[in-house]
Amino acid sequence: MYYLKYRPKKIAEIDNDERRKLLASVFAKNADVPHAFLLVGPKGTGKTSTARIIAKILNCQKNAFADEKKELEPCNRCESCLAVNANRFLDVYELDAASNRGIDDVRALRDQVGYAPIQGRYKVYIIDEVHMLTREAFNALLKTLEEPPDFVVFILATTEPQKLPETITSRCLTVKFAKAKDEEIVISLKRIAKGEGLSVGTDVLAIIAGRSGGSFRDAAKLFELAVQTTDLSVEAVTTLLKNNVQEDPEELLRLILSKETDKAVAWLHAYAEAGGGSAFLIEELLSLLHDLLLSQKGALEKNGELPGLEKVRAADIGRLMKLLLEAYRESRFSPIDILPMLIVVVTYE
Description:
Order of helices and strands: HHEHHEHEHEHEHHHHHHHHH
Strand content: 5-15%
């Protein structure tokens, strides 16, 4: 998979200038490494990749932290870097808080913290979707964050920072990840194309970037799909994206707002059968509603992308947004992926 094969492996490969400068500045002062980072931003914007880069910087055997060179970047050639890249470095621990969210999970982590590193200089604990931890788990984590050993660094990642207790966020260096700009995604896709030996026009990459929703990961997935199924011409890629049900939520939005419930349910069934994911769809619908509401209120220039919906009441837009946000929260735990969206459709009726 392109998005895994070509994920950034050092600071210079991070395609956001602000984030590159921040990390370079932090680690230039390597005598005082923050004991906890909080990576905040939407899905697919590089939080996990950045966490692994930090782990490599701290444990590389040939960079400034090893006193062998002044270069801060991980070398990506030593045993430590290769082990982190291959997910087999003994001192990097990754915990998914969505499925390990209880106090017992955090206590088990806390019991390990005091032991010295096995393979490197630092033990790095990466906790993804940290907002999913229970209140009791947060309290247990707080005790560890307050006074960690000098050789321990925590990296917390979340898409919903508002759910974190202030006592947690105040003890972390926050690094914000905004949705990627199209030009940043194009740079990322060019790196993939070069690595694969592909000749692809910038105009084609721009089309893919424009349909990726600001996600490096989704852009890489779409690019890989285009490579596998088209000749990478503007016409072929444009047609592919238009025919990809996952990329055409406007029709569903019209059906929901016009309360054509039977047709909306049929649309969702076809979408699910084609392999579409509910979280991605909800994000697209919320983005469309967000722009529609701003356009109605004069805060966004009207672009005519949703003709016929200009007169939808703001109260109806807000009600649908609330239903979609609730569906987004439930989608992670639903036994049937599309079920939360089906509930939205029948509830809005």
